[in-house]
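Subject: Cell division protein FtsQ

B.,
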Amino acid sequence: MTDIARKRPQFQPWQINVFGVLFLAVIVAVLLYFSNTAEYRAIQIEPSNLTDAEVASLEKAVEPLGKVQFFGADLSAIHRVVSELSWVGSANVYRDWDKGVMVSVKPRIPVANFGSEQMLDASGVVYTPADPKAVMDKSLANLYSRPKEAVNVMRQMRRINTWFAPLNLHAVDMILTPRQTWVIVFDNGLRVVVDHEDTEQKLYSLSVQLSGQLKSEVAKIASVDLRYKNGFAIAYKHR
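Prediction pasted inline below.
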């Protein structure tokens, strides 16, 4: 075999750079072509684990955005619109080769009713559910306060339920007034009122008293007023 046959073509660095630029230009041209010629399609909602009301809420939210192209759609803008719905816990906007631009969300899970028109999730976020009929769920406790105090009220409810668990009592209504007075109603009808001074200590002491010396009286007590520096007042049910 001759030296000529063995010799391979040699490329200069500038030639390799030119080929690279040309290849990249072709790729960009192809992407631009598909981007400009792709059909416009409506944004699709992934309905898994969503109620009909939640799907309808999402469809209404993205409707003003109109139909979008597969590559030309602004996914960040769609994500912002969807995330503005207070009941949406997290959202994911992505492209699916078969279905087009998709929106998938995880709704917030309520742990309590908040006021008469909103709900509260485990993170203390107050939100309005997609379905108005979902509010005032009878299986959940009812919390009332200013929205900025929601986290504090939720934490207080957890502490109270822990302290009164030995008595098999659970808070079903909790109100924190603007003057920081707490009104707690338990599932047996017991009503407790306590002020903002030494609130936790007073409530914990009451749970100890009801579990000890007053255990036999629990079923007879209608309400307890803890707004005293020394002791508390008990009102009994009418016999």
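The chain has a mean pLDDT of 89.

T.
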